[in-house]
Amino acid sequence: MPTTKAAMDAAKAEETAAQELEADGDEYVTVPLAGYDGVTKDVRALPNTRWRSSALRALNQGDFDGFFAGVLHEDDYELFEDLDPTAEGIEGFAQAVVRASGESLGKSSGPRGSSRSTRRR
User: Fold this and answer.
1) Across the strands, what pairs with 32?
2) What is the rounded CA–CA span in Å between residue 101 and residue 99?
3) How far does Cα 50 stand from its chain's mean position?
4) DSSP tag of 42
5) Any residues with CB less than 8 A from the CB of 20 and at least 6 apart, and which?
6) Residues 17-76 pLDDT 10s
7) Are 29 and 100 within 8 A, CB to CB?
């Protein structure tokens, strides 16, 4: 049975992430993930503040398998595959993780201006 490069990359990312998580002892938040058919199951995910840049790159490139391999608990990845969520389900997942983590997602206030006024000379 041939496997795709994306599936192989996702499996490799999942294995690497699992080894790192085991070594780090990271904690997970439990959030709902909605499948394409309306079925919703709880999955364990890293808090959004612990998402690695490789997982975020995968998400930005549309590699959802790689993203979920990087942020889900290794035992919940197969559940993600079975649910096969839509874009709406993925968005709901991300929002649920943010709420459960207590942190905002990509809401940096940016640098603050100087409290001293500047005057042209």
Assistant:
1) 42
2) 5
3) 9
4) E
5) none
6) 445 544 444 599 999 999 999 999 999 999 999 999 999 999 999 999 999 999 999 999
7) yes
| Contact status, residue 17 vs residue 74, Cβ threshold 8 Å | yes
φ, ψ of residue 18 in degrees (nearest 5): -60, -40
Q: How far is CA 102 from CA 49, 73, 74, 105, in A?
A: 9, 19, 23, 10
Single pTM value for the model: 0.63
Nearest CA to 39 among 76, 80, 95?
80
Q: 5-14 pLDDT, tens per residue?
A: 766 665 565 5
The DSSP letter of residue 61 is T
